[in-house]
Structures are given as C-alpha cells and as structure tokens.
Amino acid sequence: MKIRFKIWIETDDGKPILGKGGVKLLENIKSTGSIAEAAKNVNVSYKFAWEYVKKIEGLLGGIETKKGGKGAGGTILSEKLDKILEIYQSAEKEIEEVLKKYEEKLNDVTTNT
C-alpha cells in the first residue's frame, strides 16, 4: 500500500499558483533557457507553456524572456523564482520522507494481519 499527496503554492485567497507540473516546467525552462524546449520536454504544448509562464510572471514575477527566435532568444528565471522552486522541492521532499515512514507502518499493519 502507498500513501500519496499533492502540494501546491496558492495565493492567500486560495488560487493555485505553482504545483508539481509547473515546477517541472519551470525547472526545464531554467535548464534549457527555452520555453519551447521545456514544453517539449514535459510534453505540453508551447501555447500552454507560454500561458503558464505569463501567469507565473504576473503572480510572482521573476521570468525574463528575450525575443529572437532560434539561437537568439531565451528565458531566464530570477533568483527569487529559483528560491521559490527550491522551497517547493524541499517541502515536497520532506513530506515524502514523512509519508514514507507512515507507509511503512501501514504496510506493517496490513501484512501482519
């Protein structure tokens, strides 16, 4: 048996901002410098990725896009956004470790009955 969870960052009034898929997309943008390449890597459309980037920029800031097409453009994440991604990933890892402990307890109970 397994215990699963989902975490996300939301606004004070409960609107979701950043979850696992968004983190994956932003991490890919960070590593490739390209929204198009990141979209391809995480299997979403360029339009979806672009709209998501605009949403994040509007809510959190920290995304700089440079026009120019292949080889000339690019996208850079700010230190602030890097830190937000780190905090999300740290929280996710810590929660996974806690849930793993409870998953082991759950499996002890279910296999010993």
TrEMBL record:
Stored InterPro entries: Molybdate_resp_trans_reg, WH-like_DNA-bd_sf, WH_DNA-bd_sf
Tree of life domain: Archaea
MF GO annotations: DNA binding
Keywords in alphabetical order: Coiled coil, DNA-binding
The keyword Coiled coil appears for this protein: yes
Residue ranges the record marks as coiled coil: 81-112
PANTHER family: DNA-BINDING TRANSCRIPTIONAL DUAL REGULATOR MODE, TRANSCRIPTIONAL REGULATOR MODE
Record-given protein name: DNA-binding protein
